[in-house]
C-alpha cells in the first residue's frame, strides 16, 4: 500500500526501462503471478506496446506487456506535488519492501542505465524525499539542542 511508480496511459509519451523475456514453462507461471499481482489485486490494465531495445543489433521493436495504472484502483492516489508524494513514500511499504528503497533504486537505475532520459518528475521526488529523511532521525537530545 502506498505510492509506487506507475505507468499512466499517454499516447505521446515514452517510458524507459527493462524488458524481460520469459520462455517455455516460465510463461504461464509468470503471467499468472503478474496478472494476480497487477491486474486482480493491483488495479492495472494490461497493454501490449512496442519496445525498442537499445542494443545495436536490434532491428525492429518487439511487443512487450506492460501494466497501466487505472484511477479505479482503490489505492490510486492521483496527482500530487513532489513533496506530497515524497512524504507519502516515506510512510509507505508493501510486501516487497519499503517505498523509500523502491524510489531510490528506481532513480539510480534511471541515472545509470538510461542517462539520456531526463525524468525531472522522478528526480524531483527523490530530492524531496532526501530532504525530508533527516527530519525522521531527530532524537530527543537533538530536539532539545535545537
TrEMBL record:
Keyword annotations: Lyase, Transferase
Family under the similarity heading: Belongs to the gamma-glutamylcyclotransferase family. ChaC subfamily.
GO biological process terms held by the UniProt record: glutathione catabolic process
Protein name per its UniProtKB record: Gamma-glutamylcyclotransferase
Role description: Catalyzes the cleavage of glutathione into 5-oxo-L-proline and a Cys-Gly dipeptide. Acts specifically on glutathione, but not on other gamma-glutamyl peptides.
Reaction it catalyzes: glutathione = L-cysteinylglycine + 5-oxo-L-proline
Broad enzyme group: lyase
Gene Ontology molecular function terms on file: gamma-glutamylcyclotransferase activity; glutathione specific gamma-glutamylcyclotransferase activity; transferase activity
EC number(s) recorded for this UniProt protein: 4.3.2.7
CDD domains per record: GGCT_like (cd06661)
GO cellular component: cytoplasm
Domain of life: Eukaryota
Amino acid at each position: 500500500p502506498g505510492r509506487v511508480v506507475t505507468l499512466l496511459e499517454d499516447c505521446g509519451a515514452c517510458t524507459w526501462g527493462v524488458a524481460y523475456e520469459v520462455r517455455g514453462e516460465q510463461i504461464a507461471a509468470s503471467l499468472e503471478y503478474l496478472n494476480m499481482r497487477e491486474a486482480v489485486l493491483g488495479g492495472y490494465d494490461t497493454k501490449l506496446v512496442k519496445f525498442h531495445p537499445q542494443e545495436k543489433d536490434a532491428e525492429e521493436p518487439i511487443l512487450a506487456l506492460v501494466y497501466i495504472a487505472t484511477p479505479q484502483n482503490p489505492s490510486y492516489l492521483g496527482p500530487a506535488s513532489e513533496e506530497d508524494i515524497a512524504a507519502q513514500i516515506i510512510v509507505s511499504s508493501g510486501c516487497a519492501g519499503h517505498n523509500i528503497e523502491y524510489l531510490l533504486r528506481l532513480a539510480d537505475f534511471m541515472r545509470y542505465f538510461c542517462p539520456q532520459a531526463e525524468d525531472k518528475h522522478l528526480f524531483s521526488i527523490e530530492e524531496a524525499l532526501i530532504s525530508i529523511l533527516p527530519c525522521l532521525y531527530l532524537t530527543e537530545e537533538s530536539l532539545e539542542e535545537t
